[in-house]
Structures are given as C-alpha cells and as structure tokens.
Amino acid sequence: MSADFDELLAILDLRQIDDDTYVGSHPSKNPVRTFGGQMMAQSLVAATRSLQHTLPPSALSVHFIAGGDPDKDLEFHIARLRDERRFANRRVDVMQDGVVLTTALVSYLSGGRGLEHGIEPPEVPDPLSVPPIDDLLRGYEEVVPHFASALRPIDWRYTNDPTWVMRDKGEKLTYNRVWMKARGDMPDDPAVNAAALAYASDTTILDSIITTHGLSWGWDRIFAVSTNHSVWFHRPVRFDEWVLYSTSSPVAADSRGLGTGHFFDRSGQLLATVVQEGIVKHFPAKHFPR
After folding, report:
1. Closest CA to 200 of 44, 74, 77
2. 179 in Cβ contact with 249 (< 8 Å)
3. To the nearest 5 percent, what fractions of the chain are helix, strand and coil?
4. Which of 126, 194, 227, 231 is the one with CA 20 to 30 A from 88?
5. Kind of pairing between the strands at 175-182 and 154-158
C-alpha cells in the first residue's frame, strides 16, 4: 500500500506550464471516470501554488461538469480573482481536450485569533481497535470489485459496518463514521495535507444516502454521480495522523441526495466541514441480487 501512497503524492506534484497553468497526471488505478476527489485535490494544489502570499485555504467549492478520461492528463487553468496580504481567491478550471470538466473556487484567509467553538465528535472506538478496510472487503471482492481493486493510499477504518456488510446483514444505517490517515509520511507542506483531506472527503460521503434505505453499492442497482462538493477548512490538518470522518444525509429528493460530513482530529477538534450533492438513482431488482 505504500506504493499507492506514493502515487497520491505523485499526482499532487503538478507540473507547471506557465504562471497560471498546471498539468496533472492520473494514478495507475482509476475508476471509469476521473475520481472527483483527485480533481479537487489537484485544483487546490494548483490554486495554492499561484498565491502571492502564504495563506491557508478556508474554502473549496467544486462543480462537476463532465467526466474525465483517466488515460489523459488534466490541465488546470487558474484565474487570479484576488490577492491581498490576508485574503485571496482563485478559480481553477480543470480541462481535457478543450472541455471543462470541473470548476473550482478556492478562498484563502488568514483570520487570526477570534471566537472559537465547535460541535462535539460522535463517540466511536479508537482507530487501532477497529479492522482496516482490507479485512472488511474479504469475501466481498465480487460484490464490490471496484472497491476491492481501487487505489488505497489512505488507511480507512470503519467504526460501523460499511455498506456491503450492512446490506448483507439486512440492516439500515443513517450515518457513516470512518477513521482515516495517509499510509505514509506526509510532507510538511500545509497545502498538500489540505489537498489529501479534500481527496479523502470524496469517499463515503454519499454512503448514508443509500444506507438510510438499507441499500449498498454492489448489492443493488444504483447509479450515483457527484454534482458539486464543498469543503470548509477550519484548522490546519496533518493527514498522516488519524482523523475521523463522520457523515450523514439530511435529505434525498428528486433523484438527488445531499451528504454532509465533519472531520475531527483525535482530540475532538473540528478540522473541516464537507457538503456534497449527488445524483443518486436506485433501480429495484425483482430478486435479491445474490
């Protein structure tokens, strides 16, 4: 798995073409379309590399417009919207063959000291007391083959049953809570750590839409695609330390579902908040698919 982690760092190491254009590659293992979390993470890195001042990201908002081809490189075109000592804004268009795949808006803010509060994290087992995802996939390789063969640069440790196990038990679940951390030592660069969190934020967040209805990827005929995704960064993160990603779905309607999530560190501090909307369609089968 260290090779998968090295591939994550490699795709975040963008090649600069000019002041406002970068090129990014794909890893060796890909879904049919470019993984949205990859484009978000690479967009954040590209935007940050263009800043005149060193500033932390405060928000990333991405709209997915078209699917990317994993066999081709991605171009990141930057629009410099604002540059000040404490504030900055960037727009990043991700393109292939002249077609815009995603548009990302990135905000940067160095706010200094102020009022602080945050929600409490859920009570969950310690990450070292729950099994790694490889153990949870054992025996389900044919049910969720895309998960079993996916790039895994991050150590996922579910504190609850993942969708495919929950479905096998005939249960329902209105939330998902997963410990995560990189499978290697992250560089000290805050932008790369924030980008790794953005990459990971595109995993498990739509799960609660289907687990609320007792459904699962692989078991049931489900079509899902992300339409937009936003991350608010509240505090700096070290992504080679354990963080808890707690997600749920407040609503599903009109074939669209909303997933919300929070990242906490092990001390319980809220690091980031995530909201993603996706088109989610279920096509019921006449018989149980196994």
Report:
1. 44
2. no
3. 20, 35, 45
4. 227
5. antiparallel
Q: Are strands 74-83 and 154-158 parallel, antiparallel or unpaired?
A: unpaired
Q: What is the pLDDT of residues 60-107, one digit of tens each?
A: 999 999 999 999 999 999 999 999 999 999 999 999 999 999 999 999
Contact between 31 and 70 under an 8 Å Cβ cutoff? The reply is: yes
Q: Is the pLDDT of residue 53 over 80?
A: yes
Chain mean pLDDT for the chain? 95
pLDDT value, residue 286: 57
* 164 within 8 A of 210, measured Cβ to Cβ: no
Question: Residue 56 corresponds to which tokens in the numbers above?
Answer: 């932390």
Task: With cut-offs at 50, 70 and 90, classify the pLDDT of residue 195.
Answer: very high
CA gap 238, 31 in Å, rounded: 27
DSSP state of 206: T
Q: Which residue has the tokens 């292939």?
A: 96
d(Cα 64, Cα 76) in Å, to the nearest integer?
14
Please give the helix or strand (H or E) that residue 196 lies within, else none. Answer: helix 190-201
Three-state SS across 124-182? CCCHHHCCCHHHHHCCCCCCCHHHHCCCCCEEEEECCCCHHHHHHCCCCCCEEEEEEEE
Q: What is the pLDDT of residue 268?
A: 97
Q: How far apart are CA 215 and CA 33, in angstroms?
A: 23
> DSSP letter string over 25-92?
---SS--SS--HHHHHHHHHHHHHHT-SS---EEEEEEEE-S---TTS-EEEEEEEEEE-SSEEEEEE
